[in-house]
Model the fold of this input.
Amino acid sequence: MKLYEELVWRGLIKDVAGDDLEKKLNDEKITFYWGTDPTADSLHLGHYSSLVTAKRLALAGHHPILLVGGATGLIGDPRPTSEREIIQKDVLQKNLEGIQKQVSKIFDGKATVVNNYDWMKEYNYLEFLRDIGKYINVNYMLDKDIIRRRLDTGITYAEFSYTLMQGYDFLYLYQNHNCIMQVEGSDQWGNITTGIDLIKKKLGKDAYGFTMPLILDKFGHKFGKSEGNALWLDLNKTSSYELYQYLINTDDEMIIHYLKVFTFLTKEEIEQIEKEHFECPEKRLAQQTLAREIITDLHGKEEYEKALRLSQVLFNGDVSNLTGKEIEEVFHGVPSFKIEKDENILDFLVNYGIVTSKREAREFLTNGSITINGEKIIDFDYIVTKQSAIENKYIIIRRGKKKYYLGIYHS
Done:
């Protein structure tokens, strides 16, 4: 299967600019770019679909440029509903450095990483209007979907001008890096076509682009969002264990689509996994494969194996050998509390809201439904002590099969 046909099979092409784009992708080696503004110091899982596509093109022999928008980030891409908050320059610089490191790692140093602030910082406003603004008709800009949707609520001139800046990025990269194609998510289609139009009018040359559909879950929410929070590609912000838990719980309706989008497995491999998965869906073979492929690509085999081990520990309830760092990863987000003193198990369970009364505490203990650091507790006279805590700090309480609490002694 040739590259273009593979991209179509994987569901990675939505909009296309350029009559012979298929030939360019299949038969030539071209330079292309994908860009993002540094709105945070890490990319998140939603960005990863674009990065995987760019990496897929790179593996086919095309050269990727990853643009981090130090200049466009100061303005902000128009949102559908309201203006973005302006990012302070020092924050933007920190974000920029974090993202540059991430994309360099994902591409193993084989992508060119650029910052559009480098070519915008000295550009005189009058010159920009003469060189770029005169080529883009206002009616053309008003017809852009993202701008049209903001006209009723209002859009600032700064946001309105954003598409000119991104169009110029494409022109600059075309002239200075022989970059003839832009690849983005479908929400960037208007900006891609502005760049292509500018190149045609300024240089009389053809440029290309395609967009990828936004990756959503079965409810129409953006992929990689967990209870309103992004799943970050930075291990310090989202652990491999947290990422594993999100991916292993992927709905069966979406899992094969995600394997096509997010992994480098072949068509034959994915079709075999699909067959085996739906023969025994309870084994979650496809979800396990997705988690393995994404985490290994992002963070390495060791991090995947660690995430798998921590998941098995939590499933089995054998938490006594976890390190403090692992405990904080695994139990991030569970109900937690500061332990003030050693006390009897009945008082402990009631005082920290694990049960509602001593009567209920006795029932749970009698039924063997309370464990402390992996040990089943049935003795009403048991004392929870700092000496029994993991690393003299952590008390992990499980009530029933799945309900966990984390108590922490503070010195």
Observations:
- The CA atoms of residues 344 and 383 lie 4 Å apart.
